[in-house]
Amino acid sequence: MLSDLKGWEFLILAALVVLLFGGKRLPDAARGLGRSLRIFKSETRGLREDDEAAATTTATQVPPTQAIPPVTPVVVTPVEPVQTPAQAPVQAPAQTPAPQAQPVQQAPEAGEH
Fold it and tell me: Which has fewest Cβ within 10 Å: 31, 51, 54, 93?
């Protein structure tokens, strides 16, 4: 986008910036922008150095001298299979005789004796 600007277009853009921000604010804004860029560059440089240092220490690390103790094998004892309700044999419930109805005796009426 900026590569398409020609000489006179760039001058018009610069004049608009000066009109919008004023002559007093432009040096302060440029100074703040310069500080920000310096901080950004130093931080990115620090990150690169940290990455390079981590890569070299990883490559030159000595493997651990302490061996991992062997694991004790687990002995599995066979267990009888458990029958699920679907596999268990079906037993008929014990039949109990149904109670029989007893005839009800009616009480004598007041007129009968």
Answer: 93
